[in-house]
Design brief:
- The chain is mainly β and about 130 residues long.
- It is about 10% helix and about 30% strand.
- The protein has two helices and seven strands; from the N terminus they run E-E-H-E-H-E-E-E-E.
- The protein has helices at about 20-25, 55-65; strands spanning about 5, 15-20, 50, 75-80, 90-95, 100-105, 110-115.
- A four-stranded antiparallel β-sheet has the order 1-5-6-3, with no helix packed on it.
- It is globular, with a radius of gyration of 14 Å.
């Protein structure tokens, strides 16, 4: 397991990406719009942080393939996260030469936008 390296906010890219099944997004979103999937068994392996990628290309090529076999009617959403609106601890871990940033706090509604993550007929994701 790669080491978690703590970084300052100014060392984190301005935008991060997180994808989640829509039903879990709704389950983990509080009444005030805050999203928090941390420590949840159903998503993120019960991690104490929110998993993110720095680009859609990394999300598509390195992460989303894990969900290709989900039923095609299973809707996913993409969260585009504005790091400047967060007041959380940040770490990263490096896997195969790619840094994956982790957010150690919930996402207030003003810190992210949500869009549908379209899927191709083979189950892959059409992220660009």
């Amino acid at each position: 397991m790669p080491e978690e390296i703590q970084v300052k906010k100014n060392q984190v890219p301005e935008v991060l990406y997180h994808m989640v099944p829509n039903d879990l997004f709704l389950k983990f979103t509080q009444k005030d719009g805050t999203y928090n999937c941390r420590n949840q068994n159903e998503w993120g392996h019960a991690s104490p942080f929110i998993h993110t990628t720095t680009t859609l290309q990394i999300l598509k090529n390195r992460v989303a393939g894990n969900w290709k076999d989900y039923p095609l009617d299973k809707k996913f959403v993409l969260l585009t996260i504005d790091v400047s609106k967060l007041d959380s601890k940040f770490t990263f871990a490096e896997y195969n030469g790619i840094k994956y940033f982790h957010i150690w706090g919930s996402l207030p509604p003003e810190s992210f936008s949500v869009s549908e993550a379209d899927r191709n007929p083979d189950g892959s994701f059409a992220l660009s």
